[in-house]
Amino acid sequence: MVALSMADGYARVTNKPQCVIVHVDVGTQGLGAAMHNASCGRVPVLIFAGLSPHTIEGELRGSRTEYIHWIQDVPDQKQIVAQYCRYVGEIKTGKNVKQIVNRALQFAMSDPKGPVYLMGAREVMEEEIEPYKLIQEHWAPVEPTALPPSGVSAIATALVDAESPLVITGYCGRNHAAVPELVKLADTIKGLRVLDTTGSDVCFPATHPGWLGLRYGIDDGILEADAILVIDCDVPWVNTFCHPGPGARIFHVDVDPLKTQMPVFYLAATKRYRAESLTAFRQLNDFLATDPRATASLQDPKFAARWTALEKSHSTLLSSLAALALPPAPSDPAPKITTPHLASLLRALCPPTTIFAIEAVTNTLH
């Protein structure tokens, strides 16, 4: 659990796959909730576990020598974690070990990124092979996918024509280059608001007038929006609390729009596309800068008025958040330290580069 959590964090910071080695079935079980975290966080990590030796009489180097080799010989070890992995495989011979490892890493680093799991018995680990090399360039991950031209036009036009356009995201901040592209989109379509559901890294700066906050499940912006772009987001809203109005046009863009690891998932989207967020944002920004109709529409004075309204509402939001962080009043008969106040003190005392790991139930619905 600790090792995979460390690998998870380092992979998020560097965007480079990390490796964890664990001991057969019990070590695999010990990964625990860290497997869920890595899968939902779209984190590229490779996990390798041994298998109990499969020979008993000394037929191969590595045959069983300890009683535990019988106890830890389970019917299907990979099934302990398979449903959280992008790929699971067994190294059956040392002669193609590099190909198997590279294939696993291709899955780990291709969208949607995530954990992969390899295993191998002791006989394979002790197999003697002739040294060989691969051309590593042949094992690169799948390149990012883009929106079709019709999708670019449909989404951009809908956001420009809308009275209350909204973007809901959660993972696009994993690629830091995507953040300024989303900011550019919000600067171009003045009045566009962004709700960040924090599936991972922060996706949109709180200093921008279009920022609605960091929360999921419920927000007035969802109720008011007449055009919504859901991009790189697992849970844009929780239907039992909040959902868009019946006339809202919804566009769903994701590297995994079907959410293949979720048995129950659906959005009432007008259109859905499999595309990577940075690429999609760049396509939308290019379209808005070059399409004659879009550029003409954006010159309408109503967009300037919307920007002014956003600045006012944003200032009100920041003031309300600042008020939550105030210390208890001296006259309060039962003063208590609130979570926002404690968080504000920590922010003031810790370096700006501090990374906070929070193991708490969310209160973002409140």
Task: Describe what you observe in this structure.
Residues 153-259 form the Thiamine pyrophosphate enzyme central domain. This is Pyruvate decarboxylase. Belongs to the TPP enzyme family. Helices cover 36% and strands 14% of the residues. It is α/β, with parallel strands linked by helices. A 6-stranded parallel sheet has the order 7-6-5-8-9-10.
- Report the sheet-strand fraction: 5-15%
Question: How are the strands of the biggest sheet laid out side by side?
Answer: 7-6-5-8-9-10
**How many strands appear in the DSSP assignment?**
10
Radius of gyration: 25 Å
**Poorly predicted spans:** none
Helix content: 25-40%
Number of helices: 13
Principal-axis shape equals globular
Q: Main β-sheet, in a few words?
A: 6 strands, parallel
Mean pLDDT: 94
Q: H/E element string?
A: HEHHEHEHEHHEHEEHEEEHHHH
Terminal CA distance:
31 Å
Structural class: alpha/beta
InterPro entries: DHS-like_NAD/FAD-binding_dom (IPR029035), THDP-binding (IPR029061), Thiamin_PyroP_enz_cen_dom (IPR012000), Thiamin_PyroP_enz_TPP-bd_dom (IPR012001), TPP_enz (IPR045229)
GO molecular function, one term: flavin adenine dinucleotide binding
Keywords: Thiamine pyrophosphate
Organism: Glutinoglossum americanum
